[in-house]
Design a protein that fits this description.
Layout (H helix, E strand, L loop, with lengths): L20 E5 L6 H12 L3 E4 L7 H15 L4 E4 L1 H9 L5 H27 L6 E6 L9 H18 L5 E8 L5 H12 L9 E5 L2
Parallel strand pairs: 1-2, 1-3, 3-4, 4-5, 5-6
Helix pairs in contact: 1-6, 2-4, 3-4, 4-5
C-alpha cells in the first residue's frame, strides 16, 4: 500500500500553505524526500517548483531563483534535499573518498541554493523567508553524519547572521527508519505560519 501524502488525521489543515511559493532544490527528479515534500505541500495548496541542484555553479542558482521570483513575485520557502545529493554522489561506492565527495556535494549544493534564495528573494522581502535543509540518515554512508552536522551548523550560523532579514533556517535530520511522508509532513509544518517560530534548529526524526 503506498504511503499517504498528507496526514489524514487533520494534523495539517486543508489549504495550510495557500499563497506560499515553495522552491525545492534537489538533484533527484523522482522518489526520495523531495518527491514526497512536493506532493504534500502541493496537496496543502502551495505553489511548488523545482530549483535544481548546482553544487558547482552559483550563477545557475542565481538565474533559477530570479526566474522563479519573476513568475511568482517572490519565494517563501526553500527546501534543500541534501540527502539526495549525498546519496547520488556516493553511488555504489562506500569508501571514505567517495564519502568525502558526497559530503561536499551535499553541503556545497545546499549553500549555493541558500545563498541564491537569500540574495534573490528573501533579503528584499518584507517577511524574509525560510530555508529547510534535509540531511541524509546516519546509515547512508561514510560522511553522512558529518553532512548532517554541517547542515545543522549552517542553520545555526545563518539563523543568527540573517535574523535581521527575517530569514529562518532549520535542518531536518531523519533517522534511519524515518519515512519520506514523515519528513514531508514536518517540512509542511515548518513552511506554514507555525514554522515562523523556529530558526537555527535541528529536528531529529528518530522514527
Amino acid at each position: 500500500m503506498p504511503e499517504a501524502t498528507a496526514d489524514p488525521s487533520g494534523l495539517l489543515r486543508t489549504g495550510l500553505l495557500e499563497g506560499q511559493v515553495l522552491a525545492v532544490a534537489s538533484p533527484r527528479a523522482e522518489g526520495g524526500f523531495a518527491a514526497r515534500v512536493k506532493a504534500v505541500c502541493a496537496e496543502l495548496s502551495a505553489r511548488v517548483e523545482d530549483l535544481g541542484w548546482e553544487p558547482d555553479d552559483e550563477n545557475a542558482c542565481d538565474g533559477a531563483v530570479a526566474a522563479m521570483v519573476q513568475r511568482h513575485a517572490g519565494v517563501h520557502t526553500l527546501v534543500n534535499d541534501a540527502a539526495a545529493a549525498y546519496e547520488l554522489t556516493l553511488g555504489q561506492r562506500g569508501d571514505w573518498r567517495a564519502g568525502q565527495q558526497a559530503l561536499r556535494a551535499a553541503l556545497d549544493g545546499a549553500w549555493n541554493a541558500t545563498r541564491a534564495a537569500a540574495n534573490g528573494a528573501f533579503i528584499a522581502a518584507a517577511d524574509g523567508g525560510k530555508v529547510i535543509n534535509l540531511a541524509p540518515p546516519p546509515s547512508a554512508g561514510p560522511g553522512a553524519v558529518a553532512a548532517a552536522a554541517g547542515l545543522e551548523n549552517m542553520a545555526r550560523t545563518l539563523s543568527i547572521e540573517w535574523s535581521r532579514y527575517g530569514i529562518r533556517v532549520t535542518t531536518i535530520a531523519p533517522g534511519d527508519t524515518a519515512t519520506p511522508a514523515q519528513v514531508a509532513t514536518l517540512v509542511a509544518f515548518l513552511a506554514s505560519p507555525a514554522g515562523d517560530y523556529y530558526s537555527g534548529c535541528r529536528f531529529a526524526l528518530a522514527c
